[in-house]
Design a protein that fits this description.
By secondary structure, the protein is mainly alpha-helical. The chain folds into 3 domains: 63 residues, 2-Layer Sandwich (Herpes Virus-1); 25 residues; 173 residues, no CATH class. The chain is built from 11 helices and 8 strands. Strands 1-2 form a two-stranded antiparallel ribbon. Helix 6 packs across helix 11 and helix 9 runs antiparallel to helix 10.
Length: 322
C-alpha cells in the first residue's frame, strides 16, 4: 500500500499527515484530501491524464547520514584517505596538516572569493604577517611565477620561495649549500656559464700554492718538481694560507648569493623570450623557457675540465718562470 504521508495535495498544496482522510484518483493515482477532491469534483492532475502516466510520491527522501569529510584526511600528495588521528600519510609519509588549505598552482579550484586571509600573529610584538596566495600567473618583478618554475626545472620548490623574496622585497641573501660546497660545478650545472667559467679559473689560481707544495714534496703524486723556491718558508706558508682564506670567502659568498644570481639570470632570459615570442602560442613559449633553463651535466663536466686544465697550465707556467 502506498504511503502518502509527506506528499503534497496538489489542490491545497499541504502535505499529507498520518491522520488525513485521503482519496485517490482511480485513473492516475493522484492523492487528495477528501474535502479537496469533493470541492473540485474531479481529479485536476490533467498532465498525468494527458500523458497516461501514474502519480509518483513527492515526499522528501529521508536524509541518510554520510560520513563527514572530517572523518578522513586526504593526502595532498598521493590522494590516499587516512584516519583523522594520523599525523602522516600511511602511503607516502606526507604530513597531514592544512588539508583544506588552497594549494599554489591549483588551477582546478573554482573558489574566486574576495575574502582576504586573516593576519597571522608573529613572534614579534605588534607585527602581524598576512599570508599571500600565489598562482602560476603571479607577477614576480615582471615575470610569471609559473615561468620561473619552468625555467628552474628540477627542484623548483627549492628556489621559488627565494625568488619571491628577491622580487618582492629586493633582498639578495639566501643560502644554497650546494653552491657553497661545489661552487664552479654548481654554477655550470645551472647553466650560469659565465660565472661558472670565471669561478673555475679563479679557484684554480687560488689552489696553485697547494699544488706547488704537493708537487715539490712529491707526496701522493710520484712526481717531484723543483720550482726554485722554498715551499716551507714562512712567506710561502702565508701565501698558501691567504689563498685558502680567499677561496673560502668566495665559496661562502657563492653559497649566499648563488640563488640571487640565478634569479637575475632566469628573469633576464625569460623576459628576452617574452620579447622575442610575442606572436607565439603559450606552449611554444613554455618550451623555449624550459629549454633555455634547466640543468646540464655536460656543462658541469666542462667546468671540471676547465679547472683541471687551468690548474695544470698555471703549474707548468710557474715551473718555467721560476
Amino acid at each position: 500500500m502506498t504511503n502518502y504521508t509527506g506528499s503534497k495535495c496538489i489542490c491545497c498544496e499541504k502535505r499529507f499527515t498520518d491522520d488525513d482522510d485521503i482519496v485517490v484518483c482511480p485513473d492516475c493515482g493522484t492523492p487528495y484530501h477528501r474535502s479537496c477532491y469533493e470541492e473540485k469534483g474531479r481529479c485536476i492532475n490533467d498532465i498525468l491524464h494527458d500523458k497516461n502516466v501514474t502519480w509518483l510520491p513527492d515526499a522528501p527522501e529521508p536524509e541518510i547520514p554520510v560520513a563527514s569529510a572530517s572523518n578522513v584526511k586526504r593526502c595532498i600528495r598521493c590522494g590516499a584517505e587516512n584516519d583523522p588521528s594520523l599525523r602522516y600519510c600511511e602511503q607516502c609519509g606526507t604530513p597531514l596538516v592544512n588539508m583544506d588549505a588552497p594549494r599554489p598552482f591549483n588551477n582546478g579550484t573554482d573558489d574566486k572569493s574576495d575574502v582576504k586571509p586573516e593576519p597571522i600573529n608573529s613572534n614579534i610584538p605588534g607585527i602581524n604577517v598576512t599570508p599571500v596566495m600565489l598562482t602560476q600567473d603571479s607577477d614576480i618583478d615582471g615575470v610569471k611565477l609559473g615561468d620561473l618554475a619552468r625555467y628552474v626545472g628540477p627542484n623548483p620548490l627549492g628556489f621559488l620561495p627565494s625568488f619571491v623574496k628577491f622580487g618582492k622585497t629586493g633582498r639578495k641573501l639566501s643560502m644554497n649549500i650546494f653552491a657553497f660546497l661545489f661552487t664552479p660545478l654548481y654554477f655550470m650545472y645551472r647553466k650560469m656559464i659565465g660565472w661558472g667559467v670565471i669561478i673555475a679559473m679563479v679557484m684554480a689560481v687560488l689552489n696553485l700554492p697547494v699544488m706547488i707544495e704537493m708537487f715539490s714534496a712529491g707526496n701522493n703524486t710520484g712526481i717531484t718538481i723543483n720550482f726554485g723556491f722554498n715551499v716551507t718558508s714562512d712567506r710561502f706558508k702565508m701565501l698558501e694560507q691567504g689563498a685558502m682564506y680567499i677561496r673560502m670567502t668566495l665559496e661562502i659568498m657563492a653559497g649566499f648569493f648563488a640563488n640571487y644570481l640565478y634569479y637575475k639570470q632566469a628573469k633576464r632570459d625569460i623576459m628576452k623570450i617574452y620579447r622575442e615570442s610575442e606572436d607565439e602560442n603559450r606552449d611554444d613559449i613554455n618550451e623555449r623557457i624550459m629549454r633555455t633553463g634547466g640543468t646540464s651535466f655536460g656543462y658541469m663536466l666542462l667546468a671540471f675540465m676547465i679547472y683541471t686544465i687551468f690548474s695544470m697550465g698555471a703549474l707548468v707556467l710557474v715551473g718555467k718562470l721560476f
